[in-house]
Amino acid sequence: MLSQFFALHHPNKINISVNEERKLWFKQFIKSFAVVFFVYFGMYLVRNNIKAATPLLVDSGRA
C-alpha cells in the first residue's frame, strides 16, 4: 500500500494540458513535502524529549 502511495506515476499521454500537468506535479510535490515535514517534526519531538530526559538518564547512570 505504501509503495503505491509513494510510486511516481508518469502520465502516458503525450499531449496533456498545462493544467493537468500542474495537477500531477502538485500531487507528487505534496507527497514529498508531507514526508519531509513529518520526518522533521518527529526529529524535533525526539530532540526535545531527549533534552528533557537527560538529567534523569544521568542520575540513573550514577546509581
TrEMBL record:
Instruction: State if Transmembrane helix is listed as a keyword.
Output: yes
Segments traversing the membrane = 29-46
Keywords associated with the record? Membrane, Transmembrane, Transmembrane helix
Q: Carries keyword Membrane?
A: yes
Which superkingdom heads the taxonomic lineage of this protein's source?
Bacteria
Q: What is this protein called?
A: Glycerol-3-phosphate transporter
Q: Which organism is it from?
A: Leuconostoc falkenbergense
